[in-house]
Amino acid sequence: MPTLKALVLGCSLKSSPAPSSSELLGREVLAALADHDVDGEFVRVADHDVRFGVSTDEGDGDAWPSIRSKVLAAQILVIATPIWMGQPSSITKMILERLDAELSETDDQGRPSMSGKVAVVAVVGNEDGAHHVAAEVFQALNDVGFTVPAAGSTYWVGEAMQTLDYHDAGPKPDTTGAATATLAANAAHLAHLLAATRYPAG
């Protein structure tokens, strides 16, 4: 079975080296994927000068083209986002807007550029909304060609109106950890199938 690639886009509002619960959960997804012949890389988007826009390259030093090349090279994309006011982070939304450009990008057989790639989501927060956030992100990614596996999200949500973060909460092997393991197994299984048998040309 060939080794696949995964890319985690960490959508924390904080730049490195600030602690990030979404980065922690994203890296836990990578560790779980490694058990299924998937190599991975983590990119914290806030560390890069990604411009607002809906094209593949907004010019003037835009960092998105280099990140996009990593997305294109990966078979699995992981969006790791915090919840803010019940919503995905603004960086997550910016990434989805940049991926909107893929609607007009196709391969030599007319398939969308992201066709055959698998997308999963990791969510953290101190308020309700993990299912809503996953739904928003999945819908956008599916629109541009990504395939969503069964049980394709993992999350941790702390008590509302409190300040405890996931990176301070300690391991959650029977809840978040179990969801992460299932996500990884299903995502890797689907990605291997799609790598072996592409969707039909448009």
TrEMBL record:
GO terms for molecular function: oxidoreductase activity. Gene3D superfamilies: 3.40.50.360. InterPro entries: Flavoprotein-like_sf, FMN_Rdtase-like_dom. It holds the Pfam family FMN_red. Residues 8-152 form the NADPH-dependent FMN reductase-like domain. This is Multimeric flavodoxin WrbA.
